[in-house]
Write a structure and sequence with these properties.
163 residues; mainly alpha; 8 helices; 2 strands; elongated; transmembrane helix; Phosphotransbutyrylase
Length: 163
């Protein structure tokens, strides 16, 4: 029981943090005032004025969003990647003790991570001023995969040292 708690409590705590963050309306998570107060946006404008991309049907550029919102977009997407990187790693860590097959552990970990990412985006659809995006699920899935691959490498080294 202790071992189960040791390996699964971090997974469920992290999932709870993700759920809580998704429950917050955009206004409570708006980084633009902090960015504007602490970063010289003229540098961002100079460095990235030519960058234009499309995400979820919107143009992401300084011209379209302004420098603070442009920077916030990338911070938020990095947060998606990192959050699911950690979840993927923790998921692999939890499942590693049930399956001896690394490939099976990796696939199940990734499937569960993606499933949670999808449920998180659906949850955001019910949160005021938040919207679900399949593109966010793809970022989450990529972050989860990288976290799982790191866990796979670490646990392979641990197993190799034991032998």
């Amino acid at each position: 029981m202790k071992k189960t708690l040791l390996y699964w409590l971090p997974v469920f705590l992290w999932m709870g943090i993700i759920f809580y963050a998704s429950s917050q309306p955009y206004e409570k998570q708006d980084l633009r005032p902090t960015i504007s107060a602490n970063i010289d946006l003229s540098i961002i404008e100079t460095l990235f004025s030519t960058v234009k991309l499309h995400y979820a049907g919107d143009e992401i550029s300084i011209e379209a969003l302004g420098a603070a919102h442009f920077l916030e977009f990338f911070i938020r997407k990095a947060a998606h990647f990192f959050t699911y990187f950690v979840l993927g790693f923790l998921m692999y860590r939890g499942l590693n003790h049930y399956f001896l097959n690394n490939r099976l552990t990796s696939l199940i970990s990734w499937f569960l991570t993606i499933l949670y990412a999808i449920s998180d985006e659906v949850h955001q659809g019910f949160t005021p001023n938040r919207s679900p995006h399949i593109e966010d699920v793809m970022i989450d899935a990529t972050g989860g995969l990288v976290g799982i691959l790191l866990a796979l490498i670490i646990y392979k080294k641990i197993r190799t040292k034991r032998i």
